[in-house]
Amino acid sequence: MKAIRYHGPKDMRYEDVEMPAVGPDDVLIRVKAAGLCGTDLEVYDGVMFYFTSGMSRTPLITGHEWAGEVIEWGANVTGFKVGDRVTGECSVGCLRCDYCVKGWYNQCPNRTETGLLNREGGFAEYIAFPQMFLHTCNGLPCDEASFIEPTGVALYATKLAQTCPEDYVAVMGPGPIGLFMVQTAKAYGARHVTLVGTRDDRLEVGRQLGADLTVNVRSENLVEKVREGTNGHMIDVVLEAVGKPAVWDDIASIVAPRARVAMTGLFAGETCAVDFDPLVINNVTILGSLGGPSCWDEAIDLHERGKVTAAPLITHRLPLSQFVDGIDIMRNRTDNAIKVVLEP
User: Fold this and answer.
1) pTM for the full model?
2) What does each C-alpha distance from 157 to 117, 161, 168, 237, 293 come to in angstroms?
3) Which site among 143, 193, 236, 291 is 20 to 30 Å from 176 CA-CA?
């Protein structure tokens, strides 16, 4: 079969590889769609931590946002039929350690991560995947189903911050994760959602997806706009999806007393200067939010019920063989690119 494999920085090859072995607990899937994300750009550039630290082996088939159709399965597998549309999780835990037993398999010290950490990914014609981390999504086309992974990231942060109908919510960053956060916050009943960013085209998409207020911090006063939009209350829940140090000053300027801040962005070693006194005085809670554990079935349900959609985010489609072109589109944001879908 054909696949994209990472051999080293700027060395991602579209090449022939062996068909994946199907173990007794595995399902073999014909991949129909796979999404590119910022992490794939980091992998291509050779700066992604798992590879720079030597944690992950190479070569490795990459791609952690994918969906496809069931072809066959191992002897121990039940609950799937040929032709089922499915998508698989990014974090795959050992199911034995204390973290896995508690449902925190994204923190499993023995985990693999699809297309990133010692597990072959979805940039391939076929993938074999363990049934315990595979989810049926027959109510969705495969291109939208390939974005259950970023939806899960957004949903996990929304849940972790205990978002509820009394909350004024701010989403920091109108990238794909942030645009899904707008929708998950709305699905959880937030009474008002503010989307904060620097690109008018992305902010417009956010308005289409339900944001009550958008603020371009390059041209508008964030504090004044938020104060006006929340009738002076300010922000109860911040869902962060930026991963740049400057975001912290923006967050600190708009939080209300007892605010909850869920951080999903990775800062690539950059640090923020934090004044902790107002955080302590105002009982502000800061939460790290990694991945989307135990959220996938709910994320699929939100899509199938129309509470969340990926359709407006899909701006480009390419054959898998044009992976590098897709990377260039993302890097240069060609034609206001948001998400690129690769089709094996």
Assistant:
1) 0.94
2) 22, 6, 15, 10, 10
3) 236
